[in-house]
Amino acid sequence: MALCSCAIVILGASGDLTRRKLMPALNTLFGQGHIGKSCVIVGSGRTFFTDDGFRNRFEADRDFGDLLFYHQHTPGLRNFIMSKGNFSRIIVFLSQPPSAYQSSIKELAADGFGKETMIALEKPFGYDYDSACKLNETLLKCFDEKQIYRIDHYLGKEVVQDILVFRFANSLFYPLWNSRYIESIQINAIESEGVGERGRYFDGAGIIRDMVQNHLLQLLCLLTMEAPVTLGADDIREQKISVLRSMEIINCNRFQYKGYRSEKDISPDSLTETYAELSLRINNFRWQSTPIYIRTGKALHRKGTEIGVRFKSVPQVLYNRSGDLNENTIIFKIQPQEGIILDLSTKIPVNSTITSAHMNLCYREAFSVPSPEAYQKLIQEILNCDRTLFVSALETETAWQLINGFSDKGAPGFYPKGFMPTGDSNIKWIDFDSYAGVC
Ligand code: BG6
Predict the structure, then answer these.
(1) Separation between Cα atoms, residue 112 and residue 240, nearest integer Å
(2) Which among 26, 186, 256, 270 is least buried, having the fewest CB atoms inside 10 angstroms?
(3) What is residue 351's DSSP assignment?
(4) Low-confidence ranges of the chain (pLDDT < 70)
(5) Which ligand 1 atom is nearest residue 214's CA?
């Protein structure tokens, strides 16, 4: 159903994020009828454009192009929007470098953006705990938490949204989801690309701030939180915060790829980590003795994000007398392929050998609808005023508290580009590469 009387505003409208992500997603949502013809999309920024000049920057067909307008600078922006129609909701995307967030928020409030406004902004939310608190303070001085949509694009990925469904809609797994039965939880989020054009940002951040503080801790929250009272945003957030507060980092190893220091905008003596391996513990009744392992990095041998939940072995009797039977494992394949795989031990027909077999739920084959792009899904949720897939102020602050200090611990080790991580030999890592061809 098309939504009407809504103005969508993009601050930083001449930037890369607007061109690459935001406009294509808005265009698709318009094509699908989620954005009605009575809406407007108003770009704003420091650069001057005429409306037509702004429209011509995007490959927009005529109907979508008709929704687009441009207003230079924030002062006067609200009046400009209201001159285009009587909108009951204004969604403002801060599509700018995070360093501009604070001043933009204050300018919006000063220009009269009030209760009808929804503010959408992307990570990084601050650089550390203190800066995140300051950003939240500014946001909450000008707007209410209910008006704020902090985007973590991992929450828009289909398999990520399926984690809670898998856990709480299947009686099969629900009783087993604790330290008594689960041996370890492992997250593998690796990329083959290096830092590319994003050196300036990345060198000041590092992979722990860039990936762990947000995306990977969010995955971990969904995997380990208690059942929420309802599926409403506030109840889910409450449980995520509670489990985040119980998390503790036990060990953290940091590495940098060789050649990183000669990449564009990287300091020649940079100590920033591009790959990290972390062990965590969750200090609560459910998880206390289940170790959590995370590894994430850039310039590695392939791109892929997977979660593995490995169950404890069966007792060392009968088929497992020698103790080498594979443990049951659930793999959530988030990307590039999407699927959920369950590894079981089974007998090979005719012969009596026990082998490990995959039971696959491959999204591409199981569902006839292709998964929407994460960003598109999240914008659709903002249009629906649903905050469930967005991150609260307290979640970001608690996550910063957890990782504070772990990014800046001295010189990292080195690895060659294209490295295939095997992980710390004391840890029994799941061989995620062996699932690459499944799904
Ligand atoms: C971003 C990080 O948030 O996520 C990038 O800033 C990273 O460094 C990217 O490459 C990974 O996203 P995806 O969806 O490709 O896994």
Answers:
(1) 34
(2) 270
(3) S
(4) 1-4
(5) 3
